[in-house]
Amino acid sequence: LSEAAQIYVGEDRFAARKKIIAELKEKGFLQKEEEYQTRVGYSQRSGAVVEPRISTQWFLKMKEMAGPALKAVMDGDIKIHPGDKFLATYKYWLENVKDWCISRQLWWGQQIPAWYDEEGNVYVAQSLGALQIDEPGTRNQKLSQDEDVLDTWFSSWLWPMEVFKGISDPGNDDINYYYPTSVLVTGQDIIFFWVARMIMAGMEYMHEKPFSDVYFTGMVRDKEGRKMSKSLGNSPDLLDLIKKYGADAVRFGIMISSPAGNDLLFDESSLDQGKHFNNKLWNALKLIKIFNVRKEDGDDLQQALLMSEINANPGVSFAPAISVNITDDENFAVQWFQSRLNEVRIEVENLYTHFRLSEALKTIYSLVWDDFCSWYLEWIKPPFGVKIGEDLYLKTIDFFEQLLQLLHPFMPFITEEIYHLLKSQEDDLVVKQFEEPGKANAEILRWGNILKESVTGIRDAKNKNQVKPKEKIKLHLDTPDKSDFADIEDILVKQVNAERLSYSTDPVPNSIAVVVKKNKFYIETEQAIDTVSQKNQLQKDLLYLKGFLTSVEKKLGNDKFVSNAKADVIELERKKQADALDKIKIIEESLTSLR
Fold first, then answer.
1. pLDDT, tens digit, for every residue of 113-129?
2. Which residues contact 446 (CB under 8 A, 6 or more apart)?
3. What residue ranges in 170-222 does DSSP mark as E strands?
4. In angstroms, what CA-CA distances link 130 with 124, 139, 553?
5. Is 529 a residue whose pLDDT tops 80?
6. Cα–Cα distance between 492 and 514 in angstroms, integer?
7. pTM for this predicted structure
8. Residues 6+ apart with CB under 8 A from 301
């Protein structure tokens, strides 16, 4: 306590508090004591108790400035993403705005441009020199500058303008060209501290919004849910992660785990997924290069291609082209993937428009891993040692280039590298412009799904009945769409290792029955068929489908759902109902034939 306290001068504040109570009791001045809970502030660095102290501060009146900033967002001139999550927060802050205390008692920062004379009068100016020009009477006075500095956010709220010197040099070419900017990317924890204040400053000083869109990322937190920070020491070393997984894998792992605005509980397993995806891209490159090598070129050349020739000779042609035309099955594969690529490009463009970056990456990831690597490359893969046709090879290279371009914003290093290893390129991927996506053929996509489901269903049935993958089978098909299967028949036969595909309307005895949509497949093998296991599996499928049908019919029988749901939603439910009825009928027929 200082001399101003008059009593207990020089005593520690906590000791003085105890002594004053004892003295009050001794003199009979204490009426009663009452315990209550209160919030005590502590210094972040020293841990000392922070005592409230009344002091003079500088404030900025905010109510009038908040109005235009609120209107700009509520009218849609500035869009917040994701709006459903943070628009209400923005609205609440600006509707309940308080005057802003802009002074801070720190030893660093921008010192407040205010000066005091010996009588306590205050003068505000850009500088002391400017003050003495504007106020000649101050020249011979002893002036002292305010020791406080401005709040950090007071300079930050001018960022969209002053980064182009729009305040210090108004109307210059840069501010006229770049203001307003387009998109602000930031964290949701500074919606008011920075975002709202930048909008207020822009509307006040430039009379125009500072940007058109605000994209809020989520907070990266540790496994305990704590925000990662230097003070807690819970942040991983980014350079160590890059050394362990690769920069692109780290970018991938963070992006795919971060839906817009949602917090991310950091887990290294997502970086592992990115590392595996990198390997998938390299393997796809190697496989495509092997498609262009003949058996006559020898095993040594193939091995060299896998190891070193890719890097040494990215554009080399390893053998004279063999005249192999694109067959019907290859035609379908190309048409299907072209439609799938167009479909995804349109979808990704829409996701970008709504700043759903994580969903865009997931969509591209599935297109590359599942559709391109797992299906398309398998459908066009030639027999071992046979070189695919030049047209098909070049088309596959083109597909891969487009996939790399889609991935490039998320994984810039590996995509640029592989892009130049595919063939000699005239430009870099980073500057290559996207072309307008074509239309997706819905019918081709539908038959692509039927083909995938048929291959998966037949392989699963073979596996459950312990039929070896390399064992040739005889495949029979009972379908109402026989003519349409002509386009996918060759791929189907190759994918399930069948001798041929024959059509039949009667059950095939001693075979494995598989139901895919309205199609019924019968698999003939040399080994004995376990009809009991088949019956059990079909009965399980039948039980599931009947339960599924009941839930769909219950929904369609709900008048409230039918009257409120959109037409396309109701149509989808009716399609589910029809598909379930068709499958139930086919399974029941299959069970009858097994008795």
1. 999 988 889 999 988 88
2. none
3. 183-187, 213-217, 220-221
4. 10, 11, 81
5. no
6. 14
7. 0.76
8. 293, 309, 318
